[in-house]
Amino acid sequence: MNSDDTTRTVGLASRRAGWGRELVASLPRSLRRTNDGMLPADIMLVDGVPGWTIAAMQTLAQGVRALVVVEPGFVDPDELAALADAVDEAGADLTLVDALADSAALAGFRNLLDDSFGELVVDGARADCRSGLLLAQLRVLRALGLEGLQLTMIDATCAAIIIEGEGRLGPATLRLRLSGAVGAGPKRLAVTAHAAAATARLSWRGGTAARPVEVTLANVAGIRTLPAIHEGGHRRGLRALLASTRAPSGSAALRAFGRDLDLLRVLLDAP
Question: What is the pLDDT of residues 28-44, one digit of tens each?
Answer without folding.
Answer: 766 677 765 566 788 99
